[in-house]
Structure formats: C-alpha cells, structure tokens
Give the backbone structure.
Amino acid sequence: MTRKIIFDSDPGQDDALALLLALAAPEIEVLSVVSVAGNVPQPLVTDNLLALLSLAGRDDIPVYRGCELPLIREQYTAEYVHGDTGIDGADIPAALRKAEAQHGVDHIIETCMAAEDGSVTLVPVGPLTNIGMAIAKERAIIPKIREIVWMGGAFDEPGNTTALAEFNAFVDPHAGAIVFKSGIPMVVLPLDVTHKALLPQEAVRRLAEFGSPVATACAGMIGFYEQYDVAKYGWDGAAMHDPCAVAYLIDPTLFRSRRMSIGIDYTNEETIGNTYERMDGSVPNATVVFDVEADRFFELLVSSWCSL
C-alpha cells in the first residue's frame, strides 16, 4: 500500500532533491505540495516547487502557497547556502501554471478533515510553520494524521545555523513547539543522521553522465550547494538532508533510530531552536533517526533520480 503524503517544503536544493525522490517512489503517492518560506522567501519557494514538478512531468500534482513568515520570529533565509533562487546550479524552466488559490494551511486542514483517521502523512522538510498553523487552527486534524516525518533539529551533532540550532528548527521554533506537543506520531531526521549522508562525487558523476533533464538538474544543484559544505566542514560531498526524510518513508530499514521525548527551545534567545531530549520522564513523542546505511541510501537516490 502506498503512503499518501502532503509534501511541505522550502526549496532549497536538498528540498528539490527530496521532492524528486518522492515522485520517483512507487511506495509514495504525493497528494499535494505546500510551500513554506524558509531557505528563500515566498514567492520563490512556490515558483521553485511548480518548476520542479513540471521538470518531472507531474503538473497533475497541485501546489499550494503556504506561510510567508515564521509565526513570531523575524524571517531568516539561507541564500548564503542555496543561492538567490534557492535552487541555483540547475537551469530549470519556470512552470506555465500557477499555485492553487487556496492557502496551503487551509489545504492541509481540508485534506486531513476529509481523510480517514490515521491516513495522511505530512512530510515537512523545512520550517514547521504551516504544520504548526494547521494544528493551531484546527485540532480536529490530529487524529487524521498518521505521522509527521520531519527533517530538522540536531541532538549530539552541533547546529548548522547556531552552535545549537539546525536551520529548520531555528527559523520557526514556536511552530516546532506546537507540533512537538500535538501528540501526533513523529519521525525526526536531524543533522545527526544527515551529516552522515554525504553523497560521494562518483554518484554526482553518474547523474551528470546519465544526462536526462532530471538527472542533469540534480547534478547541477548538488554541485552548487555542496560548495558551502566543503568550505564550512571540509567535506568531500553534499549532505543529503531532506532526501533522508523521503528515503525513510521508502525504506526505513536504511536507518537506525530510537524513541525519545524531545522538545525545542523557543524562549531563550541564546539557545532558541535547540532541539533536545527531555529528561523529565515524559512519554516519548518521536522516533529520532541517528544512523544510515550510506551506500544503500546513495544507490536509492541515484537510481530514483535517473528513473524520472
């Protein structure tokens, strides 16, 4: 049985790679795509999602424009990683269609309310603004959601935006707090695992040599945004942050995880966005992923992108 998902995203090259992975997977049915301001502002993130779906020949999947700002904090973007467009490195033509008129948060609510209990999976790979807003606006969606699979946070690994905070958690920790406290089952793929998922140069060469429009775009986007990782960390390859979330849905045996009770700091400006394990005896609220079988993971990525 395929997993029905709403993909919530702020492309971002790694968001783009994750979406293309989901589109290639027979295990996943992408019901819709919702944009959220994050790596770059609206309307760029919406335009990027529309263009990526057109590139993959999937203009049948509706796109909804979501939130333009975090719930409370000032907007923080990452053009310093992803370039001015968010998906620099690939020449992807603009889509000929526009996003749906309905707001992304209302779409999430409407889709969930019309679904059977425990049947919709939300896959946010950006800030949790839309998801937090939807839960705050209509708590009746909670039993409809099977799982939230989120790329975000950092535990034993240092943050990539501050010493303690990963980007998605830092941008909207208040929305994160709403989600973490909702009672909805969560899978969290933090930097602890994504920093172990460095796509080797040989895999990028395979994509470039394959030569299809999707594979070429993937190679170009990876080539651009890996420059930041190489300069900052000295790595030989780009971290496949957001593709980890989609790969977990396709084949959870690729990963190693443990149940934890987690929280997010949204009150102290010095530690804001820090995700941490609660040590107060509270019931676990998330499956947190810490390790990946890298070679199998990379093969899944490359073969999937080449199949589109």
